[in-house]
Amino acid sequence: QMNIGPVGSLNPFVCTPSREHVLYKGVKYALVGTCILPFRITGTIVVVALVSSLFKFATLGLSHHDRSTPLSWWRKLILKPVPFLARTLLFFWGFLYIKKHGKPELDSTKAPIVVANHVSIIDSFITVIEEIPSFVSKKENLSVPVIGSLLVATRSILIDRNDPNARKNSKDELTERAKKAFQDKRQSRIQIFPEGTTTSGEALISFKPGAFSAGVPVQPLCLVYPNKNCNLSMNANPDHMFGQLLEILLQFVNYAEVHYLPVYKPSEEEKRDPILYARNVRQVMANYMKVPTTEHSFEDVRLKLLANSLNLDSDHTTDQVLFNDVRRIYNLSFEDLRELTKNFAAMDLDHSGTLNEEEFAQLLRLPKDSAVVEEMFQLFDRDGDGSLDFKEFIVGLSSVSQSLGFDQEKIIEHCFKIFDADGDGKINLKEFASIMLVKFPHITKPEIREMFDTMDVNHDKGITFAEFKDFALKNPIYTKMAQVFIEKREKEETTTD
Fold first, then answer.
1. How does DSSP assign 124-166, residue by residue?
2. At 193, is the secondary structure helix, strand, or coil?
3. Contact, 266 vs 277, CB < 8 A?
4. Of 305, 253, 293, whose CA–CA distance to 96 is shortest?
5. Residue 22 backbone zone (phi > 0: left; psi -120 to 50: alpha; other: beta)
6. How far apart are CA 420 and CA 133, in angstroms?
7. What angle in degrees, to the nearest 10, is found between the helix axes of 408-419 and 390-404?
8. Strands, DSSP E only, in 262-402?
9. pLDDT tens, 189-219?
């Protein structure tokens, strides 16, 4: 069995629970809430208003469309106070002292890209203390007060999620901007969080290769938040950004460390292979921070959120697999895995995170007392405990597809001919029902009708070969069942002879 997820290993999206005593926490919140919080909120409002005004003035007459042209000298002059104001804002948030190790290489011709681990909502504020870089952000943020002006002023790279070519376009723009900054020191450095999402800070997940595609030097930046009683990671309170910020404001004091590592210059091999480049930079950062690395990715976060929205226990379902491993081993896309998660959730009627044989039969829309259903269930149930967890479900489906190999299309064509009794190129409901009742005597007419309608995509009361093949390719378990039927029949015929 190939491994597609580190069961029981470190989950970088789950924070270590706080050991803070409830009584101490209550007293702290009461004291800070009454004595310090009003001062912090007032200071925050003042600083945000000042920063917003500066960005407004600096971006007068500027369009977000022309992002490659550096700001003129007078616009940069207006933004000069921003780093000081960013530090002042963090002071109001309880960061009385921020430790800094190393120096930022502000010359873009030496390191046009800064790559940092992503932990908290305040990561970007901390980086702005030293310089005002360009960021990579979704286009919708242009309409957010303050943030929109910041993105225009910093000539940030914007991703339009409604554009099907957004990923390629943003990667191309990032590569072009990085190369231009490498040649022209007037250009701002580009700040990127290559993990693509926030983590607990206790590990580094896989780095997306986009930041490394230009093949230019990068400066690694390690952000550490050594708070004892309050985890500053967004993952500690992932559903409520405001709640996370409020918790930060309710601490007596907060701690942060900024570690600028030496500029990493890629080898010729790394320039040719952005994935290798990203992996090696991640390892340098992990070694420095003394934390492990995992192959989790942003897609794992998306699957976890999907599982939660479907009332699945993500700890026992999607957290059991790693998307990068599933894609590499079984060639499944994120869309494939998303649909499989939805199917699994639909059949997990008791929300236990596993499927029993009855639920598995319902997934196939077939009677549970069928011998072939029982055989398929045993094929999936690799540990023989009488239930299928999400990992067994994924591995089973993928193994079925691989076991069919080049015979899959031949089996599909053979099965279509069996169903198409009159040979007119279409399977009508009567033909479909007659075969299903022979193979599955206990199947009901509504179940037959439901499966027929699912395959009859254009609802013309007939299943064409194209519709039949498309359904079979998307649901390889049915093809595997057909293969089992065919092999049994051939074996019986051989025995008879």
1. HHHHHTT---B-EEEGGGGGSTTHHHHHHHTT-EEE-TTSTTH
2. coil
3. yes
4. 253
5. alpha
6. 65
7. 90
8. 354-355, 388-389
9. 999 999 888 888 888 988 988 889 999 999 9
DSSP state of 286: H
Q: Distance (Å, rounded) from C-alpha 128 to C-alpha 111? A: 16
Mean residue pLDDT of the chain comes to: 81
- Mean pLDDT in residue range 36-61: 91
Q: How far apart are CA 426 and CA 420, in angstroms?
A: 6
At residue 123, what is the residue type? D
Return the half-sphere exposure (C-beta side, CA atoms, 13 A cut-off) of residue 266. 26
Report d(CA 319, CA 253) in Å as an integer.
Answer: 34
pTM comes to 0.72
C-beta atoms surrounding 245 within 10 Å: 16
Side-chain half-sphere exposure of 379, counting CA atoms within 13 A: 19
List the Cα angle 382/378/360 in 5-degree steps. 105
Q: Measured between alpha carbons, how far apart are the two ends of the chain, in Å?
A: 38
How far apart CA 48 and CA 82 sit, in angstroms, is: 10
**How many Cα atoms within 13 Å fall on the side-chain side of residue 28?**
15
Q: Which residue has the tokens 């600028």?
A: 260
Does the pLDDT of residue 323 top 90, yes or no? no
Q: H or E element: which one contains 191? A: strand 190-192
Identify whether the C-beta of residue 134 lies closer than 8 Å to the C-beta of residue 155: yes
Count other Cβ atoms within 10 Å, centred on residue 463.
Answer: 25
More confident call, 184 vs 333: 184
Contacts of 487 (CB under 8 A, 6+ apart): none
59 close to 152: Cβ distance less than 8 angstroms? yes
CB 250 within 8 A of CB 33: yes
d(CA 174, CA 259): 24
Segment 266-272 shows an average pLDDT of 94
Distances (CA, A) of 361 to 139, 153, 357: 45, 58, 6
**70 Cβ partners below 8 Å, 6+ apart?**
155, 184, 186, 187, 188
Output 147 or 37, whichever has higher pLDDT. 37
**Buried-exposed string 361-383: b where 16+ CB fall within 10 A, e elsewhere:** bbbbbbebebebbeebbeebbee
Give the C-alpha separation, 202 to 224, whole Å: 10
pLDDT in tens, 340-398: 778 777 777 777 777 888 877 776 767 666 676 777 777 777 777 787 777 777 777 66
The CA distance from 28 to 248, in Å, is 12
Q: Phi/psi of residue 78, each to 5°?
A: -60, -35
